[in-house]
Amino acid sequence: MNSPLPPPGAPLEHYVSGAPYDPNDVEADNKHVGPVANASQMRLMWWYFRQHRVAVFSGVIILVMYLSILICEFLAPYNLHTRNTEFIYAPPASVHFFRDGEFVGPYTYGQKMTLDMTNLKREYSDIPGDVQPIRFFCRGDSYKFWNIFESDVHLVCPAEGGHLFLFGTDRLGRDVLSRTIYGARISLTIGILGVTMSFILGIIIGGIAGYRGGLFDMIVQRITEVLQSIPSIPLWMALATIIPLTWSPLLVYVGITVILGLLDWTGLARAVRSKLLSLREEDYVVAAQLLGANGGRVIRKHMVPGFMSHLIASATLTVPGMILGETALSFLGIGLRPPITSWGILLTEAQSISIIALYPWLLLPVVPVIVVILAFNFLGDGLRDAADPYK
Amino acid sequence: MLRYIFTRIVTMIPTLLLISALVFIIIELPPGDYFESYVAELRSMGESADLEEIEILKERYGFDQPLYKRYFHWLGGLMVGDFGYSFEYRLPVNEVVGERLWLTILVSVVTIIFTWMVAFPIGIYSATHQYSWGDYGLSFLGMIGIAVPNFILALVMMYFANIWFGTSIGHLMDREYLNQPLSWDKFVSILEHLWIPVLIIGTAGTAGMVRRLRANLLDELKKQYVVTARAKGMAPGKLLRKYPLRMALNFFVSDIGSILPAVISGAEVTAIVLSLETTGPMLIKALQSQDMYLAGSFLMFLAFLTVIGVLVSDIALALLDPRIRFGAGRGE
Question: What pTM did the predictor assign?
Answer without folding.
Answer: 0.81
